[in-house]
Amino acid sequence: MSLAVVGYGYWGSKHVRVLSSVPGVDLTIVDGEPERLADAAAHHPNVRTATRLGDVLGSVDAVVVATPPGTHTGLARRAIEAGRHVLVEKPLATSVEDAELLVRAAHENDVQLMVGHTFEYNAAVWKLRELVRSGSLGRILYVDTARLSLGRYQRDVNVIWDLAPHDISIVSFVLDEMPEQATVWAHSHISSQHPDVAYLRLDFPRSQTHAYVHVSWLTPRKVRQVTVVGEKRMAVYDDMSDNERIRIYDIGVDVAAITDPADAFALPVSYRTGDIISPYIAFEEPLLVQDRHFIACLRSGTRPQTPGERGLDVVRVLAATDDALRNEGRATSLVGVTEAPWGADLEVPVPGIAS
């Protein structure tokens, strides 16, 4: 299997590292910056390099697009129309129209289009999904996510398009549902070009719950956390933890019925406290699991777990946040999202994630 990784930046270098370890993969790195190609050659002496995708497109089976988001559509479309399978880093595109174009082109050219929603290949996220689906947390009251760090300001997208695709992907995967509405608050603190701090509220009608997503490029401490609050129990997924990525809290709040009108001024509640459990989760790097899955799908002809349609649905949510920002943050309804964007094949576990 011959692959070209286009872009040797933050994500491209990671793809090269993991793909270099996969047996039977012949790799070429494509980047227009000579300094990056020199660095790639120094770290991966057995990998070929090129400055233009067109120079290698005729000799590869598939292309991994790991360039800035604004370039995804042009590069992916070129590869697809040449009959090559494509894995595109998140977000799939920077507009709904471009994402639809890529999905349509992949279908017309009979090639696989996969989007790099890496957290859907993370064993801890699968465990969180299992906890929700099993009912052990009870009815889900809300989900809260935080993806915060300092730096990596982007030129062509704001902080929502840069960071929130991960959380939109995680929450919709865990709840098995796409949101119906998006409400946004965002602000630019450093540059007037793009917001660097944002809060989103996503409304999920079928499960009758909300997700609150906080993303920031301007925070001193790196945070990658998802909290699922249920009526029975609560669970926290902390991606920064080395050995306790999932913690289940047997705690909650019960509201007592008001029988005496004199008590109506106060809300009588009782608090439940119990054990905190951290289940064992065998960890394997999600990017490695994802990229191996991509190669396995190409070899078998199987539809990937995160196909282009999945990326399109996430782009629709991101586009709705743009509409909300233009309307002073007010709720914006989503149009065209699918009921189950990942398809029925999700019940078949991805090797390395679930048994």
Unreliable residue stretches: none
What is the ordering of alpha helices and beta strands? EHEHEEHEHEHEHEEEEEEEEEHHE
Binned strand content? 25-35%
Main pleated-sheet profile: 9 strands, mixed
How many extended strands?
17
CATH superfamily of the largest domain: Dihydrodipicolinate Reductase, domain 2
Read across the widest sheet, the strand sequence of neighbours is 16-13-12-11-7-10-9-8-17
Domain Gfo/Idh/MocA-like oxidoreductase N-terminal: 3-117
InterPro entries: Gfo/Idh/MocA-like_OxRdtase_N, Gfo/Idh/MocA_Oxidoreductases, GFO_IDH_MocA-like_dom, NAD(P)-bd_dom_sf
Domain GFO/IDH/MocA-like oxidoreductase: 127-234
GO molecular function, one term: nucleotide binding
Give a short synopsis of this structure.
The chain has helices at residues 10-19, 34-43, 72-81, 96-108, 123-134, 159-175, 286-300, 308-326, and strands spanning 2-6, 26-30, 48-50, 62-65, 85-89, 113-116, 140-150, 181-187, 197-204, 209-216, 218-230, 234-238, 246-249, 252-255, 269-272, 276-277, 332-333. With 355 residues, it is an alpha/beta fold.
